[in-house]
Design goal:
Layout (H helix, E strand, L loop, with lengths): L2 E6 L6 H7 L1 E3 L6 H9 L5 E6 L6 E14 L23 E16 H7 L16 E4 L1 H12 L2
Parallel strand pairs: 1-3
Antiparallel strand pairs: 1-6, 2-5, 3-4, 4-5
The chain binds a DNA duplex through loops.
Length: 152
DNA sequence: GCCAACGTTGGC
DNA sequence: GCCAACGTTGGC
């Protein structure tokens, strides 16, 4: 089983929204590197839910990959901000997954705490200029994040 | 295929 | 709101 981190702006979609909805299609990712990670996900993988562009940013919970290799429907929808005219139904370029709510942490693990506990080598999130919205987390690092969460 | 211009992300 | 970092676009 693999671990991942999914970024979302809470104003757009928050861990509370996921908790309410139970599951969501992780649509709208329009970056090839992030898409490649989405395509590498397997059913049962766990993903940390990260709130970005908020004060403070940080990991707010956990979700699980329920379904993989779904062609992102928003790429075909001219009304969608994620519409991609270069994509077609028979040859989609954007793929995603469905995730389900697992847990909302009682206390956020802030970016500041993550910076204090991990190196940029360990956590892609911490690398200078990083803008990836989907990234892998090494299992040892994931275990330490979970331990951090449990310790408070 | 280069690269300048532009747009976006996201922490601060 | 600023701006560094990075991805994408499009002219040549």
């Amino acid at each position: 089983m693999n671990y991942w981190l999914l970024k979302s702006e809470p104003d757009v979609f928050s861990i509370d929204d996921l908790k309410k909805q139970k599951t969501t299609l992780w649509d709208g990712v329009r970056n090839y590197q992030a898409r490649n990670f989405l395509m590498a996900m397997q059913v049962g993988d766990l993903a940390f839910f990260y709130h970005s562009s908020t004060e403070p940013p940080g990991i707010v919970g956990l979700c699980r990959v329920l379904e993989t290799h779904i062609a992102d429907p928003s790429q075909f929808d001219p009304q969608s901000p994620y519409f991609d005219p270069k994509s077609s139904e028979d040859k989609p370029r954007w793929w995603t997954v469905r995730v389900g709510f697992v847990e909302k942490y009682k206390q956020m693990i802030t970016l500041e705490v993550l910076r204090a506990k991990f190196s940029p080598d360990e956590l892609v999130l911490l690398r200078r200029g990083n803008r990836l919205s989907v990234m892998p987390i090494a299992s040892g690092v994931a275990d330490r994040i979970i331990a951090l969460k449990a310790s408070r």
